[in-house]
Amino acid sequence: MTSYSLGSADSKSLIPKKLPSTLTILMMLFYAFLGRIADFILAFDYPFNLYDTMDTSSYDLFDFITYSIIYPLYGYFFANFYYRWNLKGFYRMIYIIIWISMSLLFESVAICFQVFHFNNWNLFYSFIVYVIVFIIIVFYLELLLKWDNQETPIDS
Description:
The chain is mostly helical. Helix 1 runs antiparallel to helix 4 (123-151). Strands 1-2 form a two-stranded parallel ribbon. The protein has a two-stranded antiparallel ribbon with strand order 3-4. It starts with a strand and ends in a 5-residue tail after the last helix. The protein contains four helices and four strands; from the N terminus they run E-E-H-E-H-H-E-H. The protein is globular and about 45 Å long. It has one domain (18-47, 57-148). The chain has helices at 21-43, 61-85, 89-112, 123-151, and strands at residues 4-5, 12-13, 51-53, 116-118.
């Protein structure tokens, strides 16, 4: 019987782990930070209060779960597939567009389930933010990959 896990080195994995562990941790932390900072700027009372997450306008347990688990996992999948497929040029742009589209779809579903409550916000604004965020993420990931390649000795 074949055993499956999420990224184990000694068994077949459902999600092949290709991105180095240190970069995986840095990307997940960056995603958690990015989600928190974006929501802090856009969703808290001052100066904008454009939307609320979950059922309250204050920080609660579900916000913690979202920022600490969901956002980092989303970032893990984005970075892992980006790294595995070594995307460049046109394919990188298509990949980002696909992830922006998935993000908008997930946000639409979240709105239906009242995870987000828009005050002065709409999905077009989300689209603009996702474009900016995913470009920042790609630059950050490329910077990490460049740094990792410089740190890793090349075998002769």
